[in-house]
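Incident log, structure service

09:12 report received: a user says their structure output differs between two submissions of the same chain.
09:20 pulled the input from the user's history:
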Amino acid sequence: MTQTGVITFKGNPMTLAGEALEVGSPAPDFALHYAEGGIQTLTLADLKGKPSIVSIVPSLDTPTCAVQTKKFNEELAALGDKINAVTVSRDLPFAQARFCGAEDIKMRTASDYQTHAFGTDWGVQIEELKLLTRAVFVLNADGEVAHKEIVSEVTQEPDYATAMAALRMLL
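09:34 re-ran on a clean worker, output below:
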């Protein structure tokens, strides 16, 4: 299943693979990977029990993705361990860890580089580029979607205030 006409990249229409997730639906399970003393696995079960924000970016190596990750990192710092926060991209886990170290990012980064299943299961894979689109999901403690934003133009930033308000409502 594909979603057409949903997003653009530099003004060009792009196709998203997978079913669109809707507010109120359970988030699909996933197996993402991160570098922490080797390659570790992050799953939906790891996020349950606390409200979570899942910030999705095409690549941390691009200016808008770096800004998005830094802004959420700053905003989320005040919430401490009351929430889970993860940035997802297709960057290799080692590159993500290097970026976080260089930029003093405390939120977890996780990669969909192995199977690309997260991208299609969450409806955020750009078919033409095989990258993840820019999106933000807020999940409640049970792993249900409480807020979603698929940014219509991939080169633009998400609505930080709305995502943070949705997350704070779950605390």
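09:41 both user submissions now match this output. Likely a transient worker issue. Closing.
09:42 reviewer note: The domain at 2-169 is CATH 3.40.30.10 (Glutaredoxin). The chain has one domain: 2-169.
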